[in-house]
Amino acid sequence: MTGYDRRDVGLLLLRLGAGGVLVAHGTQKLFGWFGGGGIGGTGQFMESVGYAPGRASATAAGLAEAGGGTLLALGLATPAAGAAAAGAMAGAAAVHAPAGFFNQSGGYEYAATLGLAATGLAVAGPGRLSLDHALGHRFDRGWMVPTALAATAAGVALVVGARAQRLRKAKEGEQDPLFEE
């Protein structure tokens, strides 16, 4: 079959939409575009919510969002791109979770939606209107999906777990070595 079906068009639209939003958010963190704080401002925010060191956390989140979003939009290395973006959104959701689900109350609804869209694309694949398809799926093999998602889940568990420990220690009045001067 040489024509594109509605699944291919739907995946393209989902990739462009979710990928574009992720790129915009990542460039806010990395470059201060679209009213963002750049590495410095985002780094200060990251430290204020327990992600330390702040600048490294801002850089990692910005690269995962902007890089993962770009690759998703292009349909290139889709398993890794989706996993990276989903990991960044899991970290964001951890910050917003205490406010509940809905975004209007500061909740994690928005981060969860982007993370699930990225994960869904990693699992479903990019469709035929993608660079992965044009390149013979060199960077989109079946084994890459569980590998990328498992590696990301392990990394997120470590980072979010360390954040939770930092916040607990701060609440108890203990000094975190990463915050010592």
UniProtKB/TrEMBL annotation:
Record-annotated membrane-spanning stretches: 110-131, 143-162
Membrane topology: Multi-pass membrane protein
InterPro entries: DoxX, DoxX-like_oxidoreductase
Primary localization: membrane
Compartment annotation: Cell membrane
The organism's place on the tree of life at top rank: Bacteria
Keywords for the protein's UniProt record, in alphabetical order: Cell membrane, Membrane, Transmembrane, Transmembrane helix
Family, similarity comment: Belongs to the DoxX family.
The protein's name: DoxX family protein
Organism (species): Streptomyces bullii
